[in-house]
């Protein structure tokens, strides 16, 4: 049985390599490959990786946009995608059943990696997220893996997504010898972002005030996105973020008094499937009716109901984990259409998602990723 399993995985890997043939650089000349990752580290990868550790499970989404069988590449991974968004995990496992057999080396959170488990896997590459690399536990994991001979690269789909997403997709494409597929996705991303940037240039000064509220809760209150991560999309669209001047770049908690004084014109909530962190349920596997209903309930909270945006029905919501995957271009289009419908009323994130599923996704992305109470 073991031999049959290995043979099948070997066959899938070989088939994937054929489908993912390099177009920009001949494979026989690229190894060893030296690259610069998202934090500016120079990393040399001796050979084409065939056994990869993912420090965050959400980076499986990135691999799946450029590789036809991303699961065949995994030596180990973190559980965070499985626990936070189980529908995505089930969808990947449905197409690639061997995902269930991939060893777990981390929960993807701040308490770090199981070093003994990671060492036992004999991986030839580890991929970590920017938010992990910025913490002490993440830095320890990088140092440990490199000391044991495992090269580590850091990719950024959350801190500075407009700058880094296309760049880091291209980086993964070089490393996996999926250059052309990565280039196609990078251009898909850049074309859409540039359209928004060009349309909003010079028009932000009098743009609407926006509150982007991460996992709103009647008990915890509101947490406003700042100038980075998903909050960056507000400025891109020509809006003004109520958190820009009084909170750190990443944002932070805000009081009811702060919100009432700010009087946002547009309210955008973020959430996750099943309302894991909030009553607002949205994302992979969520029915559109459930997403809308839960958003309606969310803004009935005493801290939110008095806001101008809520009173006037300019209320929207989207999947919070756009801040962890290169699908964030869909969030950019949705936010632009909500913040500046005068400029971007013709944007079609639903059409963009359909194109991603048709052209790029190894596993289709299904569910309600955004919703609105205005239509």
Automatic annotation (TrEMBL):
- Pfam families under this entry? Peripla_BP_2 (PF01497)
Organism in which the protein naturally occurs:
Rhizobium grahamii CCGE 502
Q: Highest taxon of the source? A: Bacteria
- What PANTHER family has UniProt attached to this entry? MOLYBDATE-BINDING PROTEIN MOLA, VITAMIN B12-BINDING PROTEIN
Looking up InterPro entries in the UniProt record yields: ABC_Transporter_SBP, ABC_transptr_periplasmic_BD, TAT_signal
Domain Fe/B12 periplasmic-binding stretches:
50-347
What protein name applies here?
A: Ferrichrome/ferrioxamine B periplasmic transporter
